[in-house]
Structure formats: C-alpha cells, structure tokens
Specification:
This protein is mainly β and 116 residues long. It has no helices and 11 strands. It has strands spanning 3-7, 10-13, 18-25, 33-39, 46-52, 58-60, 68-73, 78-83, 92-99, 104-106, 110-115. Strands 2, 4, 5, 6, 9, 10 and 11 form a 7-stranded mixed sheet that branches. The protein has a 4-stranded antiparallel sheet with strand order 1-3-8-7, with no helix packed on it. The radius of gyration is 13 Å and the shape is globular.
Length: 116
C-alpha cells in the first residue's frame, strides 16, 4: 500500500522559512514524478514544484521560483520542499504527490500558515 506522509508545516512569519518533507513508502518510485501541490483558502489545488525520482529533474510554478527548492533523498525515500522568503499568499494546505502515467498518489496534507 502506497503511503505519502507530509511533515514540517506550521506557523511562520512573513519572510521566514519552512522545510516540508514527504516520506514515501509502499512501492518503488522509479520513473515517478514526485511533487508538491497546495490549496489555499477558497482556492483550487495548484502545482508548486516537482522532481523526477530517477532523473532529479525539477520543475517549479512561477509563484515559487527563486524562493522554493525541491529535493529528494532516494536512499531514505523522502523528498522535501524548502520554502524561503514566505509570503502571506503562501498560506495553504500543502500536499505531496507521486504520479506516473498510470498512478496518482496523495498525502493527507500539512498546513502552512504565514502571518503578515
């Protein structure tokens, strides 16, 4: 059974930093794209960043470019989202995701609140 478990959310002041982690288990993720999405209050879920589990290739939404960094630790089956220079508009529930052409898995989400 595939499980994705987020950690690292919390309350931070604007301009601060947080590091989210996602522990992935239950299968090999070779060839998967591992990513972070978020859903702010009253908004649709949106893409934040992704990384190829095998390739390490990264992709970012414009909202996080220059502020967010996604990384992976293949040995520990974890991937991370380092978020710097946080803004109030980054307030959202952040979900980790693992997907390939046939499968799409989600974590339960972790709340990030940025106070201004």
């Amino acid at each position: 059974q595939v499980q994705l478990v987020e950690s690292g959310g919390g309350l931070v002041q604007a301009g601060g930093s947080l590091r989210l982690s996602c522990a992935a288990s239950g299968r090999s993720f070779a060839g998967y794209s591992m990513g972070w999405f978020r859903q702010g209050p009253g908004k649709d879920r949106e893409f934040v960043a992704s990384i190829g589990w095998s390739s390490g290739r990264t992709n970012y939404a414009d909202s996080g470019k220059g502020r967010f960094t996604i990384s992976r630790d293949v040995d520990k089956n974890r991937f991370h989202l380092q978020m710097n220079s946080l803004k109030s508009e980054d307030t959202a529930v952040y979900f980790c995701n693992a997907q390939d052409i046939s499968n799409n898995y989600w974590g339960q989400g972790t709340q990030v609140t940025v106070s201004s």
